[in-house]
Amino acid sequence: MIEIKQLTKQYGSLTALDHLDLTIKEGDIFGYIGPNGAGKTTTMRVLATLLDPTSGQAFIDGLDVTKKGNEVRCRVGYMPDFMGVYDDLKVFEYLEFFAAAFKIDRKKRQGIVEGVLELTDLTSKKHFTVDSLSRGMQQRLGLARVLIHDPKVLILDEPASGLDPRARIEVRELLLELKRMGKTIMISSHILSELEEICDQIGIIERGKLVFDGTMDEIRKHMGVHSRIKVEVIGDPQRALDVLSPMPQIGSVTIEQRALTVTFSDGQENNGFLAKALVQGGIDIVSIEPQKLKLDDAFLELTKGIVN
Fold this sequence. Notes:
alpha/beta, Alpha-Beta Plaits, 2 domains, four-stranded antiparallel β-sheet
């Protein structure tokens, strides 16, 4: 659905994007992360036809964004990191204005506006002025606005920025609903734990170059991180360590705050043998809990914090 080939954007001597290659499959949620100034917003603006690249190509639904701008804009809903609004308009007036801008037939506008208001849970606010809405409500209105023309692709730059925890959860659930509707979503965010929960694919960019692109499982494999298990036992954990350490399925066993962290050997994913071995060794188990690499950890490991 989205394909980027050798995309480069320069501002004088500054290279914002450096021969970027990226593919996002139809129906996926793609999380785009990187330090401030890494090139995320530049990428999104090029895809939204708001910025011409210095070189390279970008395609949405098979259309070249630099040559088929009008057709691309009909397929894309772009939400910038800061959404300017007409404060004195009422919510339904704001959405009807954009429906008119997209040349939606006058007879259909009201039904479409009602539909996106219901989808974004803003129906009760339709007669409120935009400036009376909370930050979270305004973000939802921004999403309603980009859905007006029913785009195939949503490009969302920090949609959860500045929101309280409840509002972030509501936005996350809305994004999952849009995925179920078949939308392809590219989203940037600094709230990495939430991206980890909803994204099919993650792209990490630094200084205009893609550091990594893939699923969380692929990130783990790329970093050489094997499955880890946290084991809590009754009594001295050293006894459990002595039982597990000699086993060929175990890569390493360490004791941290009276709990054991067990790392498997290459190719070993099933942890069922752990409980059996400990019980046979006469050790009582409190819990066995799988531990996964978090996106925050991967981000810190794969980037250096350098910006353009």
